[in-house]
Every structure is written in structure tokens, then in C-alpha cells.
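ERR on first pass: missing label on line 2. Operator R.T. fixed the label and resubmitted. Corrected input:
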Amino acid sequence: MNNMKQLTRNAIPEREGWLRSKQTQKWIFLLFAITPAFGGYLLFTLYPNLMSAYYSLLNWNGISDPVFVGFQNYVTLFQDKYVWRALFHNLIYMFFVPAFVILISLLLAYILTNKNYKGTPFYKVIFFFPNVLSSVVVALLWAFIYDGSFGLLNSMLRLVGINIGEYYWLGEIKTALWAIIPPYVWAGVGFYVIIFMNAMVTIPKSLYESAILEGATPMTRLVKITIPLIMPIVRVGALFLVLGSLKGFEHVLILTNGGPAGSTDVIGLYMFNLAFGAEYHNYGYASAVGMFLFIVLVIAKLITDKYITSQTVEY
Amino acid sequence: MTEKRSLADVLWIVMLVAGALSVLYPLVWVFYQSLKTNQQFFQNVWSLPETLQWSNYKTAWVKYGIGKSLLNTLYYVGLSLIIGTFLTTLNAYALTRIEFKGRKLIWGIIMLSLFLPGINALIPQFVLMRDLQLTNSLTGLIILDSFGESVFFLLLLGGFMQSLPKELEESAYMDGASIFQVFLRIIAPLATPGIVTVAIFKFLGLYNNFLAPFIYLSDQKKYTIGVAMYQANQLMQYTSDWVTLFAGVLIAMIPSVFMFVFFQRWIMEGATLGGVKG
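pass 2 clean. output:
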């Protein structure tokens, strides 16, 4: 017993010395601090991303044994008219959603920053609010708006004397694709209003004052001073919106699930339904579609970078 | 420098008001429809409710299992938020304030995530989760969403931590503090504003997360609020019980509204930080 105590007493200073050695302590801390987050990232993000390239070379329904088929899935993909239709829808969203979001938020940000009307902070808060709502809530709100019999939109049209009967905006091939755009715009504008306002505030007042002295109209001031100076921020915003509307499919999934007759299908959703949809599952082909989307995203990024002027303006 | 109110001013104000109405009116409309009976709603969508049917909210609560799904959401969001925020803070400190070999490499690997669309990873991720037996489990979702890196959060917290003077840590080490103590007693308290911002954004992201719970949870008893409302809407095709669905959607909005009302300034400032940093 006594011997034991003696031993432990001797051991303590040694252990403390070992712990105090700053290097060891640092590495223990680093291990403790980095492993969970970085390990999780490697396991749940990086590894699946790498694996999807491999999966795209398989014929696999997720349950039976996978069969290696080489580039067969990609050959199928290029002949799959549904992929091209979905890509076409993506391109429509990719153009119209960013265009509307940026135009509307630039306009609202310009009014709020330069006009000093009463209630500016109130408007900012209201515009931003849809950004905190979940995609389910946003999609359901818009499903209520678009409903044929009782929807807000048709009721309003009837109120101003336009009676289009029980027209289901999301149920008709002609309009469903376009009806998906407003929910995205509605949910996205507020964020960019704030971003653009912050950018506009940093433009020195003196620029505007000298422009006014030289007789520039408000329109000239907007086009010649405000827009060029916040162009770098607009560019970043446009890039985010373009990539977002290529990738995103949650609203479409909830509002129409690609219907009617595939008229709102987008690549992300096509992939999703191939893998997790109600009908047959094909993980291999779905992964090939996913890789295709990846390539489209890279191309879109390069094009956006190139064609939305990147030169910065200085005065 | 006041300019005269002109026709242009009227136009600008009309635009502001129209913008605000387009946000507010659908919400107000849904709210007052949610207080009607289905008959009143079918007869005239403009009329105000005759008697306030608060019972619609009770019906929605029971019919869509909102009580249970809110509990599930609380468990999933709560634990992911606590574990995730703690790990992110720890991780940001290690990666931004401590010099060590291999740090650049780790940053490089994390930065890769900016180029990954993530969407093509859904399938391998699902297979991985299935192999780990973490599907159809809220705990599995917590594991998936708590462990990971986010460039946005790292930069946000890293920015906060880098602005603290080095002397703080050095003098603490002189007094014999360990690196763990320095982190818990000095860095974490001083970085609180950043940590709160991270926590708010994590909360919004987790509460609004639809795709992962939708993919991974197959058992109705485990649904989070988003999935529950999605299923409620699917059910509508057969029942057309509108007023109850209105009430349900509004209940699902309440946590977001509360967060926004209380943390509005943090949310709007934090959002800009993310935007500028890209």
C-alpha cells in the first residue's frame, strides 16, 4: 500500500511535466480541435464527392451487386432527351432568376440608400424576411397563391375584372415553368437588397455632389456612378445566383416535382428522382447525371466570370 | 440636400410599398384564411372570418402530428446546433490562431468544398449513411450535420479571433494556463459575438433543412417539421382541407419569425459578412 502511494506521488510531477511540455499539449489540443470537424468533412463531404465519380461508372440499383459498365451511363445520358429538357429548364432559370433578383434588388437598394424616405429600416426588414423562411414554407405559400380555384392570384385577377376561370398555374404545361420563377425571386431579393445597400453606402457622397453641380440627372448618376462602383459586388451576386439556380431544386420538388408531364423538371431534380424517387432507382445513372451537372456548373462559372465585366472602376 | 418631391418620388415610393406588400400580403392573407371555416373560405376568399376559428390550429396540430414533429425538430436542431457550434468554434481557433505544420494543407482541402456542388454527392452519402446504419434516424442526421467544415463559418469566426491581440494568450501561458484553458476562458468569451452569429445561422440552416430529413427519414414518427408540412400538402390532394393546412404552415413559420424578430440585426449583418467574403 505504502509502496503504491510512493509510486503515484513520484509519477505526478513527471506526468505534469509531460503535459506542460507545450508542444505535446498543443498537438493534443489540435487533435481534439481539428479531428471531429475535419474528419466529418472528409467522411461526409469529400469522400462522397469522390465516390460519385466512381458510381457514375456503375450500373447499380443500390441493392443488388453493382456492375461496372465504364462510360455507358454517359453514352445513355447524351441520348437521354429528358436530360436535355431538364438542362433547358435549368438554363431558363439560370437566366431569369438572377436577372430579376438583381434588377429588383438593385432598384430597391438604390431607392432605400439614396432617397431617405420614411421607414427605410422597416422596408429593409420586410424585404429580408422571406430569406429566413424554409423552402417548404415558401413553396407552400406560393402553392396557395397559384391555386386554380381558391388561389390568391386568380382571386386578385377576378377582382380587377379578369376572369380566367379555374386556371391552375402550376398544373398547366404552358405556365408551370414560369410560375416557378417568382417564388425564387421572392425568397431571394431581400438578401441582395442588403448586400447592395451596404455597397452603395460606401460610395463617397462627394461624387454625387459634384455630379449634381455639373447638372447630372438622377438617372445619369445611377448609371454613371452607382452601378459601375458596385459592379464587383453585383458580379459576385450574379455568380452565386447563377450557380444557385443551376443547383437548386427544392422549390421545384415541393411545388410540382417536375410535373406536369416533366415541364418543370431540372437536372438536380431529375437526378434526385432517379436515386430517391418513387419509381425505379438507378444510382449509377443518377450519379452520371450528377457529374454532368457538376460539369455544367463549372462551365457556367467560367462563362459568368468571363462575360460579366470584371474590371473595377475607380474615380 | 433635399430634392423636391416629384413624380419620380411617387414612383419610387409606389415601388417600395408594392415590394413590401408582395412580402406581407400573402402572409396576412394566409393568416386570416386560417381563421375561417373551409365553407367560408370556399365561398369567398376575400371575406373576413365571421367567427375566429382558432380551433383550426388545434386541428392542424393533431392532424399533421405537429407536436411530435416539433419535438423531433427540437432534438435534431438543438443537438446539432450545440455540438456543431462547439466544434466549429474549436476548429476555427485551431485553424486560424495556432501555427502548426500541415495547416496550409488542411485549409487547402477545406477550400476544395467551395468548388464542389455537393448535389452529386447525395447518393454516395446516402449509401455511406446506410452502411453506417444511420438512415431513418434523427441521431444519424445530427451526426451528419454536426461534423463538418464550413468555409463561411471558419472565415466569420476566424475574422473575430484574429482581431484579438496575441498578448492575451501569451500572458495567460506565462501564468501557467493550458491551451484548453486559454481557449475556454479567454478566446471563447471574447469571440462570443461571432459564436452567436454562427449559432443563429446554424439554427436557421438546420430548422429550414428539408432535403436531408426528407431523404433520410422514412418513418413518419421521426419527421421534422419541414417534412411533416410537405406530407401535409401531399395529403391535400385527397382532402382539400385548406384552412387546416394554412394554420399548419403558419405554425411551422413561428420559430423562424421569432428568430428573425429577436436576432434581426445579427442576421442581416451576418448575411452581409458572408456576401462580402464570398
